[in-house]
Design brief:
Layout: H1 5-12, E1 16-25, E2 30-33, E3 39-46, E4 48-53, E5 60-63, E6 67-70, E7 76-79, E8 87-88, H2 89-95, E9 100-103, E10 109-117, H3 124-127, E11 133-136, H4 143-159, H5 164-184, H6 194-198, H7 204-212, H8 220-226, H9 231-242, H10 246-264, H11 269-275, H12 281-292, H13 296-317
Parallel strand pairs: 1-9, 2-8
Antiparallel strand pairs: 1-10, 2-7, 3-6, 3-10, 4-5, 4-7, 6-11
Helix pairs in contact: 4-5, 8-9, 10-13, 11-12
Length: 319
Amino acid sequence: MSDDPFSDILKFTKAEALVTGGFTASGPWAIRFPAPKTIKFFAVLRGHCWVSLEGEPDPVRFDAGDVGLLTAPRAFTLASALGINPVEAMTLFSQAGRSTATLGDGSEFAHIGGHVLLDPTSGRLLAGVLPGWIHIRAASSEATRFRWLLDQLVEEREAGQPGAQLASEQIAQMLFIHVLRARLKMSDLMPAGWLRGLGDARIAPALRMMHGDPGRSWHLEELANACAMSRTTFALTFRTIVGTAPMTYLGEWRMHLAERALRDEATPVALVGQSLGYTSDSAFSNAFKRHKGKSPKAYRANAAVSREDARQELQIALP
């Protein structure tokens, strides 16, 4: 493992950003989007609009270069002005081939949007610590970087060069990472969790140490020393910011790694346990069973059956 918990967890959750479409508009317009089933992101490329989010009392103005990330399943409306009766996005994009659309002559406003896909199981590790709604403004300190990424994204989609689809996905992934980085700078506004911990300079050193060597028998005192705190202060601060005790966090991260190894690798169960610091098969098995409700061998067998079922369903669906 690396000493970069942020990258570790993005890889672990298989976070994958995809650009799915966009629209241009002019004149008065409004579009209502249904509650997304995945994380939804969008950006304003030209002009401005108002975003009315279900459950929020006041609409928010988005200007060119602003980026929004919606992690909660809430419907929302984009509009050129308040009070306009919206058209349904599903109807609009169905007519346009479910990718792009133009309202009016499209000269005043441009939007691009997409989704962030997560692993159905491990994805909860990321989704569970994100706020329901993130708005990064073009006037923020990251504005130049966002603007460059958005320009590159538009260029790739419009130029039609070989590899444009893959390049667009990679740029969208970078955009997603920079949105999260920007949010880390406002970690005091986030709920307790590992993401808030990474944004807190007092706790981040301990998280990097545990992720860098999860199989090591870490002691509270050495983690506290790395954070320049007493054991008591460190334990209290860590629990307040991350939402759990340091050793509990380490144990949970080990179990997440064990799940991935058992599901995606052929490493013998005993070696999986040893790599994560468990001194015996029984110690690892008991810890895993407390976490998942089944033994490592049973979990691996069930994961294999699930993969085979998915493979057969895909084969049936293919022409």
